[in-house]
């Protein structure tokens, strides 16, 4: 991973201040979302944009259920996020379980951290999910395209893209 801090944004001035910080109430919101994603009828609707990752802590061995927004792309699922502690538990080549409104399925995670890959994949995510884009500090240009200066800023502030490949 290259140095993300201090570099001038090659795409110009961002239109936002960057990704939204994790709010103090996020734990409560996550509990509600996890519950909703377990409900048979509702999860089919909500599960079109949200999934639950079932992650095991690499040090603690503790199981975590993390609700996240995703975008389908070329047979994989893309998750744009900051480099949160749960991301660090996704070990290269180690399968992970995810529920998309049904029984858990197995995926192989790839965590993209490089500038060009994050820029390319975040643009795909932003086009498909404007709410996720807003949460990650990505605005849009007058023609409706994701703002590249914002995407760069998101990467610069620690943004990564997790790709879940079906196993």
UniProtKB/TrEMBL annotation:
Transmembrane residue ranges: none
GO molecular function terms attached to this record: oxidoreductase activity
Disordered: annotated segments: 1-23
Signal sequence region: none
Gene3D superfamilies hit by this protein: Electron Transport, Fmn-binding Protein, Chain A
InterPro entries in the record: F420H2_quin_Rdtase (IPR004378), Split_barrel_FMN-bd (IPR012349)
Ranges of compositional bias, category Polar residues: 1-18
Source taxon at top rank: Bacteria
Protein's name according to its UniProt entry: Deazaflavin-dependent oxidoreductase (Nitroreductase family)
